[in-house]
Design goal:
Length: about 160
């Protein structure tokens, strides 16, 4: 993909399979959320089916607020690849890095990374939301992978 001046944030900077599973899931979740109302419903369902009932709505709202805040206060529109694309766009990579750093507890660094996407006035808010989103995304991915492993253990292999 060769980006033009209007979509530099879409330049391919990697591939999903080279990321931690939760980070790849985060990027796909972002793509789904921004793609269609059906994509948003799929994201809501994943949160609702994976997280405890009392926690799912709050975590989903944090994700929704993070994405809407980034979109509203962005220096320019956030460029995303299509839902099924294996590449990571530059903007998607910055978003994932922001969430990773924030979820590891380095909110100062996360606020600095956030300024690559949004105005400085919103950077701290975005970093706090990113920390919450990262922790939720890690939980969802762990649960999904554990479920997949449990189903694989129920298979009898003859050869």
């Amino acid at each position: 993909m060769m980006p033009n001046a209007q979509n530099r944030g879409g330049a391919s900077v990697g591939v999903l399979m080279h990321l931690e599973p939760w980070e790849a899931d985060l990027i796909v979740t972002l793509r789904l959320w921004c793609s269609t109302p059906d994509g948003q419903a799929r994201v809501w369902n994943e949160f609702a089916m994976t997280l405890p009932k009392g926690k799912a709505t709050g975590e989903m709202r944090a994700f929704e607020e993070l994405v809407s805040t980034v979109a509203h206060y962005a220096h320019r529109p956030l460029v995303r690849h299509s839902v099924g694309c294996a590449c990571i766009g530059a903007d998607e990579g910055v978003f994932a890095h922001l969430v990773r750093v924030a979820s590891e507890g380095d909110l100062g660094e996360a606020a600095q990374v956030a300024t690559l996407l949004v105005t400085a006035a919103q950077a701290e808010r975005v970093a706090l939301l990113a920390a919450q989103v990262g922790c939720a995304r890690k939980s969802i991915t762990r649960a999904r992978l554990a479920d997949r492993a449990a189903r694989a253990d129920n298979v009898i292999r003859l050869h």
